[in-house]
Amino acid sequence: MSENDFLPSTLEPIDIFNFRMSANSISQLIQHKSDYNPDIYQRLIRINHNSQRLNEHIRYSLPIVTANISKLTFNDTINIYQEIDEQLISNTNQQQINELNNAKEQLKQGIHYDINELISIIKFIIKKQIEYNDNISGYQLTQDIEKINLRYQRKKNNLQELITEKQTQLKQAIEKIDVIIAAEEIIIHRKLKFLFEQSLPSSEKLSSLSIPSNEIEILKMTLSFLSEFIDVIDSGLEFSLLVNARIILAEKRITLVLALQTLTYRLNSLTSKLALSDDINQINQKRKYIYQQSQNLCLIWQYYSDQLTIALHHPEFIPQLTLTLQKFSAFIDNLAYHYNRLLTD
User: Fold this and answer.
1) Residue 41 is part of which domain span?
2) Total number of domains constituting the chain
3) Structural domain contains residue 8
4) What distance in Å separates the CA atoms of residue 218 and residue 48, rounded to the nearest whole number?
5) What is the pLDDT of residues 128-174, one digit of tens each?
6) What is the mean pLDDT of residues 64-87?
């Protein structure tokens, strides 16, 4: 049997078990989310705090209400009141009638006092619950998460473009270094240092050399590379020009590798932050769910408070009150049962 079986169709049902599980999961999901965004994280902390306080408030409210209902439904007050009514019907002695009426009035006042005390407890529960509800509903996240994610994604795209650009530059630098090293080996092996003694050899001069064509192509490629560095490495046209060019490219390679490491770290950081947003969106959804379930429960509290007030002022208030208390008691028992299912928190 569900706790919602004791509610009129006009009231939204409540899933108290999933309410509790949602509050618990927020505490788990909030772990390690500080890197996402400082402001969002502070809001998550407050959402978690108020969710846990609301959860505890409901947990402790159930036995309090149960105890106060039990005090009304399981003592002899109502039974005695009904017995007096029965005696009044058959009694003709005026003095006894007056005494019975006085006793009945005292019992009635006691019942009114106990019921009003229960109603006051319910109203206090509602008041505290609404405070927690207001706090939970106040922390809107959806639009801010979307804006932050959009900003992170733009940064990530820019970083990816920079990384691709740096990777291309690094690949080119490594290829040039490999070509220059190959050219150095060819020049030394073929004894071609003389080509670099006065000026850089022309492409035509290199083509006229009696060496394999693939080696000529390597020398031509090296020649084109050297023109990039001629202003940087002085106007020297000796063989050391190749060495200097290789050193500059090696330094460029180191610079590019370090730059790529930094950019990759920043990219991974943004990727991690965007991944965190999935859990944060879950927290936001659970926040909304907790708020809605708590709102439903507030309306249920109010419904039974109103029903008790109506029963208290009904001409036949004893049977009306008894019926209302029975329904309320059954509702609370079922609510407590489903709340405490597999309770580990």
Assistant:
1) 3-155+269-339
2) 1
3) yes
4) 66
5) 999 999 999 988 889 999 999 999 999 999 999 999 999 999 998 89
6) 77
Please give the model's pTM, rounded to 2 decimal places: 0.74
* 139 located within any domain: yes
Which tens digits make up the pLDDT trace of 187-227? 666 666 666 555 566 667 777 777 887 877 777 777 767 66
> What are the residue ranges of helices labelled H in 30-93?
38-73, 77-90
The single-letter code of the amino acid at 169 is Q
Residue 228 within a domain: no
What is d(CA 274, CA 269) in angstroms, rounded to the nearest whole number? 9
Is 262 a member of any domain? Answer: no
Residue 5: what are its φ and ψ, rounded to 5°? -70, -15
